[in-house]
Design brief:
GO biological process, one term: DNA-templated transcription initiation
CATH class of the largest domain: Mainly Alpha
InterPro entries: RNA_pol_sigma-70_dom (IPR014284), RNA_pol_sigma70_r2 (IPR007627), RNA_pol_sigma70_r4 (IPR007630), RNA_pol_sigma_r2 (IPR013325), RNA_pol_sigma_r3/r4-like (IPR013324)
Number of helices: 10
GO molecular function: DNA binding; sigma factor activity
Number of domains: 2
Order of helices and strands: EEHHHHHEEHHHHH
Protein name: Sigma-70 family RNA polymerase sigma factor
CATH architecture of the largest domain: Orthogonal Bundle
Distance between the termini: 51 Å
Helix content: 40-55%
Number of strands: 4
Domain RNA polymerase sigma-70 region: 68-128, 183-231
Radius of gyration: 19 Å
Amino acid sequence: MKRTRPRWRTTFRKLFWSCGISGRRTRYFERGLYLQKGKTTLDYTYLDELVRRGQQGDKAALETLLLAFKPLLWSVIGRYVYDRGALEDAYQEACVVFMEGVRDFALEAGVYFQTFMRGRLVNYFLKRREGRFSTSVTGAVSLDMPVEGEDGAVALIELILDERADVEGACVASEQRKACLRALKKLSPGQREVLRWQYLGKGTLSQLAAQKGVSPAAVTQTHKRALAAMKRYL
C-alpha cells in the first residue's frame, strides 16, 4: 500500500486511515485528529486517549471524534439508506449510535476503534433496512442526553455538526429553555407537530409523512421552515 506523507501545517491534520474490513482494505479520508510532526501514521495512543476522555464525558473529545469519523458515518449511510429524503434522520441516528459505541468500546480488548465502530454502524443500519426495528437507538442514549464537560452539561445534539446545530443546540441548552418554549408558541400547529414528532423521539420525518398521508418532501419542507422560524425567534 502506498504510504502518504502528511505535511505539517496545523495541529489538526488531514490524514488517511487504512483499515481492513471483511477482507478488503477500505481507505477513509479523515480529518480532525492530532498527528505529531514527522509521523506518517495515525497516533493510536492519542485516539485511545480521545475515546477514554469521551467515555468520561469530555465534550471536546466527543466532538473531535465525531468530526473525525463523520466521513465513515456518511459512508455507511450511503450504502444502506436508499431513501434520499431520510438522510438527515439517518445521520442523526448514526451520531447516536456512534456515541453509544464510544461509551461501550473496551479499550483493553485489543480491537481497532475504527473497525469496531464500522461494524457497529453497519450492524445497526442493516437491521434498520430489514425493518427489525424502526428508529431503534436504545433508550439509554438520545439526542437530548446530557454530556458532562468542563463547561457544564450540554445536549448530545449540540455535538452533531450539521447546518442546524446552532438552532437545535439553542433549543436544548438549559439557559434558553424558556426562550425556546416562547418561540415554539409562535410556530404554526404543523410546524410544532413536526418538531415534537422528531425531537420527542416519536419517529422519523418519513414515518410522520406516512402517518399523515402526505409526501416526505412536504414534511421535510415544514421541518426546515420550523427550524428557520425558531432561529428567527431565538
